[in-house]
Amino acid sequence: MTRSQLPVLQRALSAHEATPTSRTAAHLADAPFRFGPPEHHAQPVPRPEGPGAHWTLVETLCELRIRGAKVVETTLGLRVRHAHRLPEVAAAVRAHADVVRLWLRLGRPAPEAGWDDGVALQAAWRRERFAAPLAPVALRAGVTVADWPRFAAQLEAAYAEGPTGPLADAVRRDLGDLFDRYAWVAEEPVRRPARALAA
After folding, report:
1. N or C: less crowded end of the chain, CB within 10 Å?
2. Closest alpha carbon to 12 in 41, 2, 36, 22
């Protein structure tokens, strides 16, 4: 719909509201633009303010997903397409380049079961890159996981309950500890062949 069509639609809606049984407005009776009470509308997504370099990782991933910003990996690093129109997004991508690169390599995992983008990224990383470690895993100081399949099944079950579940804090802590400790050990940088020099 263009801006010039809005007054026409507003006049038609006003006419229909004034005389809903009128034959001239009868075609609007089943129109899909009937609005419910305000409580039925989806809550607005909070948008970060200020320059993108100060955004958190979760705000950065959320903005990339909501805006549909295209991020490409080049030999010079990550670049946001049309960065001149999205300077704050480009600054946020530069500030969180390593995690955004991992997010891209994992296929831009979207939040599921109500979790935020950061926890969704950690869960996707654990499933994809840290699915079956060979040795007992040191989760944090003083905590070692010996039975990994059982731990992973319990973690998935608690994750499926969402951020309001009884074990939500434990899921955040365990995924965060695993990610912080092992994500960058397992992640290998992209190796690009050196350009052959002309002889």
Report:
1. C
2. 22
Domain range enclosing 173: 117-186
Whether 72 and 124 share a structural domain: no
* Residue type (1 letter), 31: A
- CA distance linking residue 176 with residue 104, whole number of Å: 19
Closest CA to 163 of 107, 99, 102, 111: 111
Q: What pLDDT is attached to residue 187?
A: 52
Q: Is residue 45 part of a domain?
A: no
Assess if residue 33 is contained within a domain: no
Which residues contact residue 155 at a Cβ distance below 8 angstroms, ignoring those fewer than 6 apart?
Answer: 126, 171, 174, 175
Q: Average pLDDT of each block of 10 consecutive residues along the chain (199 residues)?
A: 71 67 57 50 59 85 91 92 90 93 93 91 93 85 91 94 93 94 67 47
Query: With contact defined as beta carbons under 8 Å apart, do 71 and 79 qualify?
Result: yes
Question: Both 123 and 181 in a single domain?
Answer: yes
Contact 92, 52 (CB under 8 A): yes
Helices (H), ranges, 68-147 = 87-95, 97-105, 117-129
